[in-house]
Write a structure and sequence with these properties.
By secondary structure, the protein is an alpha/beta fold. The chain contains four helices and nine strands; from the N terminus they run βαβαβββαββββα. The termini are far apart.
C-alpha cells in the first residue's frame, strides 16, 4: 500500500522534533514547508493526506491554510506548543472545515495519527506512545 503523505509546516526550530521520525517509523512520508507560500507551492504539485502546521507561521497563520485544503481529501491540524508538549487543533477533516472540534493533547493525537497511518499502509504494530520529555 502507498505511504501516507504528510506535510509538516513551520520553521524547523518550532516543529515537534519527534514527529517526522515517528511518521517514518510507522510507514508514513513527510515533506516540509517553512511558511504558507511553500505550502501553496507544494499543494499545487503534490498530494498529501495530512497537513500539520504550527499555528503561527512566518508569513501568516494556520487558519490561512484552510481554503487551500477545503474540498480536497486532506485533513489539517494545527499545533500549539504547551509546557508539556503541544495541543493539536483540528481545522479541516477530509476536506471539511471543523474549527469547533476539540483540541487533542499530544499523546491522544499521536495515537490517532499512528492508527491512521497503520490503517492506510496496512502495517499494524502495537500502538505504544510515550510523550517525549522536553
Amino acid at each position: 500500500m502507498a505511504a501516507v503523505r504528510i506535510l509538516l509546516v513551520g520553521d524547523s526550530e518550532t516543529r515537534p522534533f519527534h514527529l517526522s521520525d515517528r511518521v517514518s517509523e510507522w510507514g508514513g512520508q513527510c515533506e516540509f514547508a517553512a511558511c504558507r507560500a511553500e505550502v501553496v507551492t507544494l499543494l499545487r504539485g503534490q498530494r498529501f493526506e495530512l497537513v500539520l502546521s504550527r499555528m503561527r507561521l512566518a508569513d501568516g497563520n494556520a487558519f490561512e491554510l484552510i481554503p487551500l485544503v477545503q474540498g480536497r481529501p486532506v485533513s489539517l491540524f494545527s499545533y500549539l506548543p504547551a509546557k508539556d508538549g503541544c495541543w493539536w487543533l483540528p481545522l479541516v477533516r477530509s476536506g471539511t472545515e471543523c474549527i469547533s472540534g476539540p483540541a487533542m493533547p499530544e499523546p491522544e493525537f499521536m495515537e490517532m495519527l499512528e492508527g491512521l497511518i497503520q490503517k492506510r499502509t496496512g502495517i499494524l504494530r502495537p500502538v505504544i506512545y510515550a510523550a517525549p520529555s522536553y
